[in-house]
Specification:
Layout lengths: L10 H25 L11 E6 L8 H14 L4 E5 L11 E4 L8 H4 L1 H9 L5 E3 L3 H12 L3 E5 L11 E7 L27 E5 L18 E15 L25 E5 L4 H12 L4 E4 L8 H13 L4 E5 H7 L8 E11 L2 H21 L1
Parallel strand pairs: 1-5, 1-6, 2-4, 2-5, 6-7, 7-8, 9-10, 9-11, 11-12
Antiparallel strand pairs: 3-4, 8-12
Helix pairs in contact: 2-4, 4-8
């Protein structure tokens, strides 16, 4: 596990620790405001499920949102997904990314993760906007969902929710308990008291359950992220702008023994590289970028040149990165796109989780 802050005897540690104290004071003051009822909380006229975390970095919120939307559909609900649309052009103004059947925003406007969800989720409207209440009311008015999924909303306490799911990376845990920017916590671990359940993502079946500071009555579930090959694309062509654009998938067998150059701009770049090497062998090169990185034309040209110089037969990237670069990649190399799906460590664990969700939602029906 990586250290989540510099060595204690470093000058940088002292500066970051002081900054964490200031950040923590603001977080605690905000929390006190909500607990005292001084900060307003609005409610939507439907069920609301929040999927979030208490740490910075990737914990699998997008795969979990997709998983939950599909499960709710199978249960007979009519879900919609709301996302902030981080770094998208419509983050402040709000927008409909998909009505569940066709796309009305691209990744530049929607943000890469909401656009990905819109491509993957047939029959589920996806909307973006920093004002979740405003986006939620728009969803209710235009699409009549009975359940709304809030993506990355554990700290968005201005909107009431019926079920709060918190995701924690089983390999990283909560670090050493320091708040940003000295550590990886968005808020103190005491905030887990608001969680209805915790899902330990990136778990392995035989892995010992890490020591997570959850509360005694909070159920804990274990899930992994199963990678799969979405497909192999002509990297110079944009994806079809329809919900089914990314539904074709194949196994990794077609890449075995091939020379590949991979690149990614996600929170877990090293894990992505390691996963590829485990499944298809050594790479001839790898380029990593910051999470949500927007690739310039120069970046893409350098990637293509590096791939060509090492004799690569394929470019490989993540589904999330594909949302940002489809149709802009120079050169003629085919582009293999890798996605991940939420997968509980066992059938029994998944059924236990789904029973928990059904009970919570059934309780909300009986209260109505």
């Amino acid at each position: 596990m990586q250290a989540d802050f510099p060595e204690k005897n470093s000058h940088l540690y002292g500066l970051l620790y002081a900054a964490s104290g200031i950040y923590g004071a603001g977080v605690r003051l905000r929390d006190a405001g909500f607990r005292a009822g001084m900060l307003p909380v609005k409610s939507l006229p439907c069920r609301v499920i929040s999927i979030g975390n208490i740490t910075a970095g990737g914990t699998g919120k997008t795969p979990m949102a997709i998983y939950m939307a599909r499960q709710l559909q199978q249960m007979g609900y009519r879900p919609a997904v709301l996302s902030r649309g981080y770094m998208g052009g419509a983050e402040k103004t709000g927008a409909v990314v998909s009505d569940g059947h066709s796309l009305s925003s691209d990744s530049r406007a929607a943000g890469d993760e909401p656009f990905l969800m819109a491509c993957r989720l047939g029959g589920v409207p996806v909307l973006v906007g920093a004002n979740r209440y405003q986006s939620g009311m728009r969803a209710v008015t235009e699409f009549d969902p009975d359940t709304i999924i809030l993506d990355d909303a554990f700290q968005h306490r201005q909107l009431s929710r019926d079920l709060d799911l918190v995701l924690i990376d089983a390999k990283r845990g909560v670090g050493r308990g320091h708040l940003l920017p000295c550590g990886m916590l968005r808020e103190p671990v005491s905030g887990l008291a608001r969680a209805d359940a915790v899902v330990l993502t990136r778990s392995e079946k035989e892995q010992e359950v890490p020591d997570i500071p959850v509360f005694p009555d909070t159920p804990v579930f274990r899930a992994g992220q199963e990678p799969y090959l979405v497909g192999v694309y002509d990297s110079t062509q944009p994806p079809e702008l329809r919900v089914s654009a990314l539904e074709q998938s194949t196994g990794f067998e077609c890449l075995e023994g091939r020379r590949m150059f991979a690149f990614s701009g996600i929170a877990q770049n090293r894990e992505f590289r390691g996963m590829l090497e485990d499944r298809v062998g050594a790479l001839c090169g790898f380029a990593e970028f910051a999470d949500h990185y927007f690739y310039t034309e120069r970046d893409l040209r350098e990637i293509a040149d590096r791939a060509q110089s090492c004799g690569s037969e394929y470019l490989v990237t993540t589904e999330k990165d594909f949302m940002r670069i489809a149709g802009r990649m120079p050169g003629t190399l085919p582009l293999a796109v890798v996605g991940v799906e939420m997968a509980f460590v066992s059938h029994g664990e998944e059924q236990r989780f789904l029973c928990f969700v059904r009970r919570k939602l059934a309780g909300k029906v009986s209260e109505a």
